[in-house]
């Protein structure tokens, strides 16, 4: 087709391709998990509670100015009032102040016990899962010895053996022994979880490629297997942290864990056991904080598990 001058018009140049504005940078497992977590009400609620508890443990003076060790027998077992929101205990100490300050010892024990448990179990699980053979069998049988011990019975044996009841107990030493007892009795669970993930990762193509390129066992474990095995252990650690806080309270209630002058929820519950019927507020408030804390960590663990599980997508 020509125009009036007899020349063919030039063909229209094709439009330049537009940049794919909608194309987003691909996210990894952790990026997808975080985006999913912030949309879950259960995660937001549990994370908010845990954040308040952490601030309470780190800066108790923001919540109360009362000395938790200040006592006066004249106000012993007084019920909640405007002067003392949670009342007073058997020694006339402010229960609200002791509950706020008690968060520090309980959370420290839970966090450190979880860290020790996950560290020991993860190292053993990675070695067992990667090596296989007799190494795997030896570590698995060794872990089953500790896994077969009832928790309370094992804790009684460890704490009574390492901490004979002579003299005034050292608070730091008692906290260390409680953390040790919990970690020694709980690490096989973390080992099993990590071992299962390591066995699955060991057979993946990226591990075979790294081995073919001459990477050593340590590099393969740390650079290739560990980042891909952390998700299930992280879920376990989040849930176990709440359980370990409850375990500390159980041991303290039995007189084996933390003891006065340490202020913790377990110690407060132990001190109130003989007065539950005549002064229930002695037990109610520290027990309520303990239950809410354990529930918050369990809810957080459930949310993290659902976010990291591809089957839930």
Automatic annotation (TrEMBL):
The keyword GTP-binding does not apply. Residues 1-24 are annotated as: Disordered. The keyword Cell membrane applies. Residues 103-301 form the ABC transmembrane type-1 domain. The chain crosses the membrane at residues 43-63, 107-130, 142-162, 174-194, 225-245, 282-301. It comes from the Bacteria. GO terms for biological process: transmembrane transport. GO terms for cellular component: plasma membrane. Residues 8-23 have a biased composition (Low complexity). InterPro entries: BP-dependent_transpt_permease, MetI-like, MetI-like_sf, OppC_N. It is a multi-pass membrane protein. It is found in: Cell membrane. Its main location: membrane. Keywords: Cell membrane, Membrane, Transmembrane, Transmembrane helix, Transport. Belongs to the binding-protein-dependent transport system permease family. This is ABC transporter permease. It comes from Saccharopolyspora montiporae. The lineage of its organism: Bacteria, Bacillati, Actinomycetota, Actinomycetes, Pseudonocardiales.
